[in-house]
Structure formats: C-alpha cells, structure tokens
Amino acid sequence: MMLKLVHLLGMLACGGQGLFCESLGGRILMWHQHHGRTRHDQQDEKLASTSFTSSISSAALQVSISLNKVELSVGESKFFICTAIGEPVRLDWYNPQGERILASKRMALHTETSRSRLIIYNAIIEDAGIYRCQATDASGHTEEASVVLEIYQRLTFQDIQSPQEFRHGETAEVVCDVISSPVPVVVWYYQDREITEEHHGKFQVLANNNLQIHQVTKADEGVYRCEASVEARGEIDFVDIAVVVNVPPVLSVSQQSFNATADYQESVTFTCITSGSPDPLVTWHRKGLQLEPSEQYIFNRLEGGRSMLTIHNIRQGDGGTYSCKATNKAGSQEREIFLKVFVQPHITQLKNVTAVEGSAAMISCVAEGEPLPDISWRRASDGHTFADGDKRQDGRFEVRGRHGKSVLTISGVRLADFGRFDCEALSRIGGHQKSMFLDIEYIPKFLTNHTIYYSWEGNPVNISCDVMSNPPATMLWRRERFTISAEGTANTRVYSAEGKSVLEVTPMSDRDFGRYNCTARNNIGVRYQEFILAQADVPSNPYSVRLSAVSQRLATVTFMKPDSHGGVPISYYLVQYKEVGSQDWRDIKSHSVQTTVVLTGLEPNTTYEVRVAAVNGKGQGEFSHTETFQTLPIREPSPPAVHGQRGMGKAYRLGLVKQDDGGMPIVEYIVKYKTDKEEQWMTKLVPGANDFAMLQPLQWNTRYEVEITARNVKGLSEPTFYQFFMPQKPDITAESLFSGLGLGAVVGLGLGALLLLLVLVDVSCFFLRHCGLLMCITRTLCSKKTATSGKGKEMEEGKAAYLKLPLKEENGKESLKPDTIEIKVHSDNSIHTKPDDSKA
User: Fold this and answer.
1) With 70 as the cut, is the pLDDT of residue 806 above it?
2) 225 vs 194: CA distance, rounded Å
3) How many CA atoms lie within 13 A of 695 on its CB side?
4) Which residues of 218-247 are buried (b: 16+ CB within 10 A; e: fewer)?
5) CA distances from 61 to 64, 118, 130 (A)
6) What is the rounded CA–CA span in Å between residue 307 and residue 275?
7) Residue 41 and residue 55: Cα distance in Å, rounded?
8) In sequence order, which residues have a C-beta less than 8 Å from that of residue 41 and are 6 or more positions away?
9) Of all residues in the chain, what percent carry a pLDDT higher than 70?
10) φ, ψ of residue 785 in degrees (nearest 5)
11) Pairing between strand 129-137 and 821-825?
12) Using CA atoms, how far apart are residues 440 and 419, in angstroms rounded to an integer?
C-alpha cells in the first residue's frame, strides 16, 4: 500500500518532465527490484516517505545514466555516461560491491563538472551487477542513478588441441572444453554423421562433453567435430579435432649375423625393416652408445621402412653386437645384429738373431689373427720350408709352435745358415709374411791360398791378406816375430781396409825375401797365415812357333806360352823377324799376352826368320827356336765379289767387294756392260779405292749383262759376271709425286730447293763479283801448298784415253814412285800400262 503511494506521488511530482521523470520512476522501480542488493533499507515506510520528501526538496540536483540495463558478453567492452542537473561538485561511480570505482586498466573514468563516463574494458563475469553514479552538491546533498549490467558467456572453445594423439589399443578421450552461459549442448560428429547412443559400444560422450573412444585403432583416425549450441540465444559453434592414433614400432631384421674380414677395405650393410605410426626413428647403437654418421658409418633409409647401416673399411675392433632401435611416440623396439670380423694373420713379433758358429740359435715368431693362423718357416737361401713338428734328418732344425707362436731352433749353426728366414702366418682368411736375418759370428777365415809372391830387388810387391770374419777382425803383420807397424818401415808399407790388409814390400837385399806372417783376430778367436816372398826370374822361352796365313805382305805367327813365367806375370811377348841374310831384326810386341802376332809390311817372294821371347817385370827371357818362312810372289788379283741394287731414275748401283789383291793394290775395276740384245759393250773404269760403280743412263724395261775385272800392276783378274733388269718407266707426275709425300717431305724438298738457289747465287757472285762463300774457300785453299795430280781425259769414240792413278799397298804405303801409272785403253778394249819410271 505504501509502495504504490510512493510511486504515485513520484509520478505526480514529475508532472510532464519526460525523460527525467521516466528515469526517476525507473530508479524507484529498480531500487525496488534490487532491494536485496542495495544499501537502502526498506523495512519501514518512514524511510520511504523521508526519501520521497528529499527528492522533492532537492529537485534542483538530479542524476541520470544513459542506459538502464545492458547485456554484455565476456570479453566485450562498454561505456556508461552519468549526467547531473544542478550544481554538483562531485560525481562518483560505485561498483556492485558498493565500493567507489577508481580508474584502472580495465575501468576508466572521464569526469567533468556535470558529466562522468565509466568505461569497462574486456568484461568478465565478476563485473555483473548494479553500478551507481552519485552526485554531491556543495551542501553535501547527494543524488544518484544506477544501471544494471548483466554479463553472459558466449560459446567459447578453450585450449582445443588438434591433432590429439593416442596410443593404439588404449581408451582415448578426445577433449572438447567449451564454456557458455547458460551451459551449452554438445554434439559430436564423425565422418559427417552424428555420434549417438547406438555407437555406445565404441564411442561415448562424457559428462564433461569429451568424447571417449574405446580401444582406439588406426581405423578410428580422422577428423571429429565438436558442436556446441545455446538454445536461449540461438548461438551455435563447432571445432574440428584431428585424432591421430600412434602405432608402436614393429621391427624386424633380414639377417641377424654377418661375417667380414678386417683390413681388406671391406664393407658390410645391416638392414632393419620397421613399421609403425608415425614412422619410427631408427637409430643404431653399439656398446650402449648411439652411432653417428661418419666416413665409416653411413646411414640410409629407403621406402618400405628399410633402414640400413653400412660400415666401411672394417677393422678388427668393429666386430661385436650392434642394435637397431626404432622409436616413435607410441613406444620403441630394439633388435640385435652380430658382426663376426675375421682378421687376416699379422705377425707382431719377429726379430733378427745373432748366433756364434757352432752354437744354437732360437728364432721366435708371434702372429695374431681371427682365427689364429698356422706358422711356418722358409729359408731364403734354398727355399726349404719348416713347419710345426718338422725335424730335419741331420737333426739341426726343429720347429715348435702353439697359440700363435712358433720357435725355430737351429743346433750347431753353420755359416751356410746365415741369411734371411721368412716367417709366414697363414689362415683361411689370408696370410702374412715377415723376414728376419740370422747373423753368424765366427772366427776369422783366410780367403786365399796364394801365399807365395815373387819380386826382385827394387821392385815393390803387394802381399794381400784377405780375411772373412764376423765381427770384423783386426789384422797385424809380423816378420821374424817382430810386428810391422801400420806406418811401415823404410821398405814396407801397410794398407788396410775391411777384411783386407796389404803389405807392400820393396826388396832392397836378400834379407827382405823370406816369410811374413798375417794375424787376424776378433772376439771369437784368432787365426794366422804365412806368406813367402821369393826372388823372381825372367820367363823361360816360348816354344812351338808356327807360321800360318802367309801371303805376299802378311804372315801370322803363333806359339805356346813358356813353361815358367819366372814368378812374375808375363807382360807381353816380343816377336822379332828379319830377311834371311840380314842382320837387322824388326820388333813387334804382342797385344797383352796373346800368343798370336800378325806380321805386316813384308816383301813378296822373300824368305824371313822369326823368333819369340817372353817379357815379365823382371825382364826379357830367352828367345825361342828360330823359324823361317817365305812370302808368296806377286800375282793377279782374285775376281771381285759383286752385289747390286737399283739407283735413282735410270741408274743402277754395283757394289764391289775386294778379294785377294795378289800382293799389290787394286789399281782399278774394269766394268763392261751391255743389254742382252746388243753386241757392243760399254766400258766404265772405277778406281780401285772405290767400293761401288754407278751405271747410267740405262734403258727402261731392259736386261743388262755385266762383266767386272780387277787389275793390279801384275795384271787382270778373272772376270765376274752379273745380270740385272731395269723395270718399266714409272708414270710419275707432279701431282702424283707430291700427293704421296707427307708434310715433312714437302718441307724438305722446299728447303733443298732454297739451298740450291743459295748455291747458284753464291757461284754467280764468285764468277761475276769475286765474292761470296765459295770465293772465301778458294782463297783459303789457294793460300796453302797443295800437290797436283794428273787429270784424266775421257775417251771419245775411236780415240784412246790416258789415266794416271795412284797405287798403294794394302797397308797404305805407296808402292810406286811416281804416284801415277799411265794406262792406255784402245777401242778394241785392250789395255796397256806404262809405268813412269816406277820401280816394282
């Protein structure tokens, strides 16, 4: 009854004030409605009557807010304007808890004299309630207005993760955390179909709106839709969540054990086959450590889940167990692979050994490998082999081995055992060989039995003492129990080298001949050798002197060596010869100690005497028995030997080989030739010093007959007959000539033509201007004295020609004085010679 009265009075008091009166009525209504949330107490009607009276009495101070009721979603922002009519001195805002609002980050205040704006940023649920704007005038009187702020939560999906992963076989709970006010209704969809109660055996929507999938499998993978709606506001939203099912790795190996050989640059490849979701990460491990890629370890991954580890350059330490481990989000699995590394034999210990002759030597060889190798021995000097358990017939060699170690024992070591021994370690994987040297130490041994030396007074002689020993021996010389110092004496000198000591003795009297002692000593023992220095004599006479190959100018003397060389090597043989009846012996020395000597420069048809003596360092021995022989008389030469070959163009070259010249030099060769169809011979004279004759010009496609005769001063030889055939004329043109020539030949022809041109120019300069290279040569030659010789005149047909030719002996000495012989050749081919006052 009282409330109605108050409302009525308020309306009457407002009159027709419009918005203010409406706001005032609203305020009164709102105050009534939020009775329980304000600080005004409505328990007695007196308070209401008093408030009404205050409003009327303070009509000059009035407060209004732009909005009465506002709905705001969480996170949105809003502002409210409070306006005061009258003379307010202060405007304050109060929150739903009745506390005066102070400016902050989320609540801002902008206040002027009669106007104040409240801004609420990013509203939250706790911001809901009644906000009051209070105006205060100067007298302390207050008026206020209020606004109701209702906050609601829009549909919001909180921290939705996609994809959401689960392990194969477990119960999966797909989380869909959605909030709103009021509480939303959530529906799940899979493959565009709503998940309903009929899927309860597999799927179930929980009270917290999450979707539970029982024993999830790979087939349950996909996109699930969580849809939320608020029917009161007609609000609806959804989120798609990808569900991923992780399958634990399944690992298999195609081969669990491998064999390889170390140090052969071998490689081995392990293969693991994996499956799982997501694709497993494959790692390789050894001895608890993960292997990393390197030059030795190469990792490859192929299609079909094949992962490979390749180990390059396998060594002995690479053997053992390797593990292949596959890991993904759902778990891991591991498999082991065993690598058996075979190691080729390797000899690790073998040393050189030194033994004393006659003692025992033990040689040890140690080898390793997988499997352990068998060890054998080989002697390099004769290739003989020794294996474990072997024992030679002489019992000196014995081999014992065990666990990669072998010992070769040699009893009674001999010098022949010195040298290289090879140790060979062999297995089915391979072999290894090393060598050692067995060094034998022994007492000095003298190398020569030459203990007698010959010399004579004033002639130095070297007495050599050659010793073989190990270790090297020191050597001393003694004479009649006195040691000869290294510096020597007046007539002795000592020269030493390793294994050799030479005593040089220059005998001065008979006392220097006799015995000398050489002593050799090392740490194994001492040895002595005695040498005798005897007086030398001249050689005895050679014997069995014989003459052979006697000709007009030559004779060969052969003889036997003397029975005694006098203790000193023969230096050479002296051969003496002379004409019978002459007293002047001519001397010829043999070449070194040859027992054959050739006598030259003999006169034809002459009897000679010859004798031989041997000469050594001491002197010349006695002559042998004198032998006589007679040289052959001068005669005509033997027919020459002939060989031929075709020359350039229409020429033919005849090679002339001199035979026996009959004791006098060949003066000339008379070459007669004609075709086989002609009777007339053509004649060509060739000097006897020449070794060929050039026949030209000849006819093509013609057979020729040749007759060659050699002539010396005694006469003509028997003729030598020869035939040859000239071929058909070749068809040669400039084009064919040069087409067959290479670049080098063409260049050579060009250079030859250039050289010929230069010669022609030089000759022209010689005759026309008296200059040039030819002129210089002529002046040089003309400045010297030269002997002139006769010039031959060529014979014309029907006339005679005269030739003057020098004659020489075989030994190069001229046999005729003067230097020429005149030879007249007539048209009938007869030859007459006329010496120019020469003597035979």
Assistant:
1) no
2) 9
3) 30
4) eebbeebbbbbbbeeeeeebbeebebbbbb
5) 11, 20, 21
6) 11
7) 17
8) 47
9) 83
10) -80, 125
11) unpaired
12) 9
Q: Tokens in use for 825?
A: 């050749």
> Which DSSP string do the residues of 675-736 spell out, in sequence order?
ETT--PPEEEEEETT-SEEEE-S--TTEEEEEEEEEEETTEEPPPEEEEEEE-PPP---HHH
CA distance 294 to 506: 81
Give the per-residue pLDDT at 14. 36
Number of CB atoms found within 10 A of residue 660's CB: 15
* pLDDT tens, position by position, 528-556: 999 999 999 999 999 999 999 898 889 99
Q: To which residue do tokens 């060594």 refer?
A: 315
Residues 244 and 4: their CA atoms lie apart, in Å, by 68
Please tell me the distance from the alpha carbon of residue 398 to that of residue 390, in angstroms, as a whole number.
6
Please return the burial class of 666, using the count of CB atoms within 10 Å of its CB with bins 0-12, 13-18 and 19+. buried
Of 90, 228, 261, nearest to 155 (Cα)? Answer: 228
Which two tokens mark 231?
């029917």
Please state, in angstroms and rounded to a whole number, the distance separating the CA atoms of residues 465 and 521.
13
Contact 659, 639 (CB under 8 A): yes
| The predicted structure's pLDDT at residue 825 | 36
Strand ranges for 590-701 from DSSP E: 596-599, 607-616, 620-623, 627-630, 641-646, 652-657, 668-675, 682-687, 692-695
Instruction: Report which residue type is found at 556.
Output: T
28: pLDDT strictly greater than 80? no
Residue 451, helix vs strand vs coil: coil
CB 355 within 8 A of CB 440: yes
Residue 187 tokens read as 């529906």
Q: Mean pLDDT throughout 681-694?
A: 92
Q: Distance (Å, rounded) from C-alpha 557 to C-alpha 355?
A: 60
Residue 833 to residues 653, 713, 820, 822, Cα–Cα distance (Å)? 28, 8, 11, 6
Cβ atoms of residues 582 and 576 within 8 Å: no
Burial class for 114, CB neighbours closer than 10 Å (0-12, 13-18, 19+): middle
* CA atoms of 692 and 654, how far apart (whole Å): 5
Query: What contacts 421, CB < 8 A, 6 or more positions away?
Result: 363, 377, 378, 379, 380, 408, 435, 436, 437, 438
| Residue 744: Cβ within 10 Å count | 8
The single-letter code of the amino acid at 162 is S
Select the more confidently predicted residue: 282 or 773: 282
DSSP state of 416: G
Burial 275-309 (b: 16+ CB within 10 A, else e): ebbeebebbbebeeeebeeeeeeeeeeeeebebbb
Q: Is the pTM of this model over 0.85?
A: no
List helix spans (H) across 37-153: 45-57
DSSP assigned state of 198: G
DSSP bridge partners of 465: 501
Q: What is the total residue count of the chain?
A: 840
d(CA 607, CA 471): 68
Region class of 403: left (phi > 0), else alpha (psi between -120 and 50), else beta? left
Beta strands in 105-152 (DSSP E): 107-111, 115-120, 129-137, 142-152
Q: What is the DSSP letter of 473?
A: P
399-414 confidence digits (pLDDT tens): 998 888 999 999 999 9
Q: Map tokens 């022609």 to a residue.
A: 760
